[in-house]
């Protein structure tokens, strides 16, 4: 019986991180699998990394890997839990916040530690942005952590007596801005400033968002980055377009009405599924099923799924140009409050329709030069429009305009989705009001009344 008991102890029935039966050798194998998975996620991305590739990199077999993990998603969950725990440890150590030098110092320290954790686990946070899409098995974990993290921050903000924003809404806006800003920083989408200068700008914004009446002298410890030449007028489309960036052809051009209606249904189905399931999680079969056609109908008008992404990119950029033109005329010192809310009310349906497209842009899903050219032009025009609006506000705070424009991009990209994750039935008008208040407090802030 003793021998049988010993054999049962050595059986491999699935080894979790705290399993008592793994032993030193098994623990090393398990850790090697985790480390190699992280390396592959960094070099290939979550979606392109297969279980076979992980097993080969870890020097083990597929069957052995499955004794430790049920899937690559489970390995991702363990890595995600590790970096999530690091973020929780930091938030527990935040000192008192408020419209004072001490409050700003504590906030600045927290955001610096957050940036340190982000850089340490950069691969996971970047993949988090890619995997955090509906339909993936890790989505519930990501959403659960976000709710828990926001709730903890909200309690801290409530004790700091913030006003004008619900503490949970403030936490949602804060985490949206900081997480996306760090993502943009890691991906190289921020101005050519030092890490400290970028952190300073983010800290000034968050301080003003939370405590808009913070005295200007509180920010004396922050120095404005040196002036850089930034064009704040929108160049003509022809001048901005480069010969090496071919245009995306319109799949609807020159089609008869019946054929155009068929293609439109395929395009609309693709937009919905890319938003719901992500580009990688959507197949051609999903698109034709959603549109109510046979597979052959898709290939009559599109050569591959990428063609559908290109068409939606074209349409997204066209609609974005209209939004850019409308945003650029907002004057925060005049009737800006009403115009900003009107603009945001029009932006929300645009964001909902093209969420999957913009996410694919951020993830670098395709390196097709036509797509990259359109994305560069669209993002550049939006950036210039934000700079144009910001220039109309006499802001005394040391917040670099280019950093402010990137922060606004982070808010626009993330808050609508985060708000619905918090409450799926939340009215659009409430989301608009939250976004408007965050932008007004943190970016359009003219300083305390003199």
Secondary structure layout:
Elements: H1 2-10, H2 23-44, H3 51-57, H4 62-68, H5 72-91, H6 101-120, H7 122-131, H8 139-159, H9 167-187, H10 195-210, H11 237-240, H12 257-277, H13 284-291, H14 295-301, H15 305-328, H16 336-363, H17 369-390, H18 401-422, H19 428-442
Helix pairs in contact: 2-3, 2-5, 5-6, 5-8, 6-9, 6-10, 8-9, 9-10, 9-18, 10-19, 12-13, 12-15, 12-16, 15-16, 15-17, 16-18, 16-19, 17-18, 18-19
Give a brief rundown of this model.
The chain has 450 residues and is an all-alpha fold. The protein has helices at 2-10, 23-44, 51-57, 62-68, 72-91, 101-120, 122-131, 139-159, 167-187, 195-210, 237-240, 257-277, 284-291, 295-301, 305-328, 336-363, 369-390, 401-422, 428-442. It is 68% helix and 0% strand.
Provide structural commentary.
The chain is built from 19 helices and no strands. The N terminus is likely disordered. The longest helix is centred in the last third of the chain and has 28 residues. It starts with a helix and ends in an 8-residue tail after the last helix. The radius of gyration is 24 Å and the shape is globular. With 450 residues, the chain is an all-alpha fold.
Number of helices: 19
Q: Alpha-carbon distance between the termini?
A: 86 Å
Strand content: under 5%
Number of strands: 0
Mean pLDDT: 85
